[in-house]
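My current task is to audit a protein record that another person submitted. Alongside the sequence sits a line of tokens, each denoting a local backbone shape. Where you disagree with what is written, explain briefly why. This is what I was given:
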Amino acid sequence: MADVPLMHLQTFVYSPPPGLPEPLHADADLLAFDKPAGLLTVPGRDPERADCLETRVKAAWPGALLVHRLDMATSGVIVFARNRRAQRHLGLQFERRIARKTYLARVLGAPAADSGVVDLPIAADWERRPLQKICGETGRPSRTRWRVVERRADASLMALRPFTGRSHQLRVHLAEIGLPILGDEFYAPAEALAGVPRLMLHAARLALRRPADGSWIILRAPRPTSFA
């Protein structure tokens, strides 16, 4: 796994894209958005990182409540609840792994197989925070299923389904099996960063049960043009 570029962490300037995208879905219980890459889900610790998706959603939809998060560099489907009952219902779906998440990732190189599962424990790398690492002693069970969507010698497209929700799980698992995500400044080598405009990780699909009646709803965010 590549060493983190510590200089990047020290010099990073938060400059999120402006505006709030139109909701992918809106009803009495939930809101869904396609979060752009580069925008925090919740406020950062520093005042200059106060702008975030949660703040923008609440300004447009008073009373909206956070349910889950996406990393700043990751784009795609994210949901908010519109009342406390719905927040509890949706939150339990993530906690109990009822929610079904599918991501797209453009990775360096091409896997030998067409599909597979990564089952490796993940722990915080306290000496290099906020990084995570594979650790058989202190890591928490972490499992990711993957399949090839588009195979290319230089950069393949993969669909990922995480069965657990560890911090940086997809990024760590793919880097560990030799398929680092393009644009990943934490875990990918230098050749995976050249000419790449962003982290090539996108939350493409999210299936949930509606709080009102338990029926399934499938939310989709289109593949970003940058993934081409």
Q: What stands out?
A: The chain has one domain: 6-215. Residues 2-7 have pLDDT under 50 and may be disordered. The helical segments are 6-11, 53-60, 84-95, 169-176. DSSP finds four helices and twelve strands in the chain.
